[in-house]
Structure formats: C-alpha cells, structure tokens
Amino acid sequence: MIFRSFARLGLALAVAALASAAPAQIGSVDPNAPPPPATTSAPPPVEPVEEPTADSGPAWEGAAPADPAPAEAAPAATVKREDVFSAAEGVFGKGAEGLAGIIEDLLSKQGEPNATITGREAGGAIAIGVRYGSGMLHHAVEGDRRVWWRGPSIGFDLGANADKVFALVYNLHDSEKLFRRYPAAEGNVHVVGGFTASYLRRGDVVIIPIRLGVGARLGVSAGYMRFSRKNRWVPF
C-alpha cells in the first residue's frame, strides 16, 4: 500500500511538470512575445530605357525614316555673259563699233540666253522680200548643231543685203522646238558697218538676231523666219 502511494505521488509530480512546460511546445503562442516584423516582397528591378538621340536610329524596329528636306531646284543652264560677248566678237570681230553696247542693252533687258546662233545670211526685196541663212546653234545643255533658216517678207522694202548674224535665243529648253516658223515685224535700215536687231517670237521662245550687213536695204516689212534641219530653197 505504501509503495502504491509513492507511485501515485511520482506520477502526479510528472504530470505537473509536463503541464508547466506546455507553453514552450510547438504551436503554442506567448501572449507577451512581441509581434514578428512585417515582411514585404521587393518589386522586380526596372531596366533603364535608353533615350533616342539625334544620331541613333528609329525608336523602334521598322520605323519609317523622316522625310528628307526637299532639294532646291537646280537653276536652268544659260550661256554666261562673258561667253556671249566672246561668241559675238567671233562673228563680227573684236572691237566692232557698237557691238558691246547693243549686246549689253539686250542682256540687261532679257538676261542670259540659253542658246545662241552664229552664221551668215543673204536676202533682197522689191516689196516682196526673202532671206536665206545658215549657221550653228550653240545650246547650253544640248551642245552644237547645224541649222538653216529662210523666210519671206512683204511691205515697203527695197534693196539687197548680205549679213553676219549673231542671235540670242531664250527659253529654248528643247532644241527641236527651234524648227518652226517665228513671226517677225521689223523695220530694216541696213547700212555698211551698221548693226540692227529684231525680235522673233513663238510661244515662250524668243530669238533676237543681231545683224551686221554689207549692202543697203531700206524699208518696213512683215514676215517670218523658218528654221530647218536641212537646207531648203522654198522660202515658205
């Protein structure tokens, strides 16, 4: 009996010891313990975006390039002023009296031509007149080519003449457009050693022949000049 009483007492002490150690077991919460620190998940790092520069390509693949600045239109080719004087002196001779003045006056009014014609012509008239000529067309872009011209006239016109001819040609962008009729109305006073200038016009094309004649032809006539690729005797 005494042994059983000691056994029960030992069992009771063991149970009491286990009960005092229960708060330390897993799953128990200590009311006096401080709360655990809050944890937050860090955001993923952001990669820096490279800013486009003036030298870099498009901001995205396949982007269309910017429209280039429009190119300035090239100025039309012309026969330079010094070349006009040089060509005229080649026809009439250097230092011909009155040549520089008449060419200077035409260039100041009309500007630089885009072609010139150098050549000779002959003609005559008794009321009804005719002239024939031939020479070289010097085009600022298309180069040189042989040309012929002829033309009738009618009016108060009398005499005969043989002339050296130098012509300024304006707005002849295609030399093929030369080969047409060009109406003219002119007053002729051809004296030995004298210069004359007249205007021929068709559309935008203007031809200004300058003549230095040998002979005498006086009067006022109306007619035209027709340029051709080959020599023709029929004046019409």
Look at the structure and name the CATH superfamily of the domain at 81-228: Rhodococcus equi virulence-associated protein
- What is the rounded Rg? 53 Å
Indicate the CATH architecture of the domain at 81-228: Beta Barrel
Structural class: alpha+beta
- Bin the helical content: 10-25%
Compressed to H and E, one letter per element, the order equals HHHEEEEEE
Task: Characterise this structure.
The protein is an alpha+beta fold. It has a domain of about 150 residues: Rhodococcus equi virulence-associated protein (Lipocalin, Beta Barrel), CATH 2.40.128. It is about 20% helix and about 40% strand. The protein contains 3 helices and 6 strands, in the order H-H-H-E-E-E-E-E-E. Strands 1, 2, 3, 4, 5 and 6 form a 6-stranded antiparallel β-sheet that branches. Helix 2 packs antiparallel against helix 3. It is globular. The termini are far apart. About 10% of the residues have low confidence.
